[in-house]
Write a structure and sequence with these properties.
It contains 9 helices and 6 strands; from the N terminus they run H-H-H-H-H-H-E-E-E-E-E-H-H-E-H. It is of the alpha+beta class and 201 residues long. The strands form 2 sheets. A 4-stranded antiparallel β-sheet has the order 1-5-4-3. A two-stranded antiparallel sheet has the order 2-6.
Length: 201
């Protein structure tokens, strides 16, 4: 799988967005900001004349009066920071990337609101990420070519598509996607288990 540097960087950011840009994660960040924002503002009151920028309001009370607008702004900034995390991005971008094609799979690959299958962390020698990118192909990223080769051997087994679909459906929160309803019962039996899909859950 060949990427130029710009495409590799964009795909890396896309992978990080899948880990963070979910309704639950956004709500979690919003709650955190709502709880901590007023405390930080009160702590800044005594030092406002030192830390304020020329374009900032004259007093801290004017900042606090803005209320929810600033909270939403801080929430968006935090989400952007998480999706642009340099430590996580540096690890992802140095992994070995590839794709695996399933020839005549018994089941079309599903996707969901939690489509990324990953190990508990990405710094271990065995760490890897699997992401369905179409009904018969997955993107893979691993710490070494040896791990990618091992994944290809595992994915060559006829039961692998069903096992991947099982994980995708079980770790979904609200939505699982397919182009037909053939696997509807399969999904209904698993949706709602809400198993952990990444270290960020």
């Amino acid at each position: 799988m060949d990427f130029d540097s710009d495409t590799r960087s964009a795909w890396c950011r896309f992978l990080m967005s899948l880990m963070h840009r979910t309704p639950e994660r956004i709500a979690q960040l919003r709650r955190m900001v709502e709880e901590r924002y007023p405390k930080h503002m009160e702590a800044a009151r005594a030092r406002w004349h030192e830390i304020k920028h020329p374009d900032d309001p004259r007093t801290i009370d004017e900042v606090l009066a803005v209320g929810i607008k600033d909270i939403e702004h801080v929430n968006i900034l935090l989400l952007q920071m998480a999706m642009d995390s340099k430590p996580v991005g540096d690890e992802l971008i140095t992994m070995v990337w590839g794709s695996i094609h399933f020839h005549n799979p018994g089941f079309r690959l599903l996707t969901s609101d939690r489509p990324t299958i990953m190990t508990n962390g990405i710094k271990h020698d065995y760490s890897h990420i699997v992401l369905p990118i179409c009904p018969d192909r997955v993107f893979v990223a691993a710490r070494s070519r040896q791990i990618v080769q091992k994944l290809k051997l595992v994915f060559d087994r006829p039961e692998t598509p069903a096992r991947l679909n099982d994980l995708i459906a079980r770790q979904a929160r609200r939505f699982v996607y397919d182009t037909t309803d053939v696997q509807l019962r399969f999904v209904e039996n698993r949706l709602g288990q809400r198993i952990r899909s990444s270290p960020f859950d």
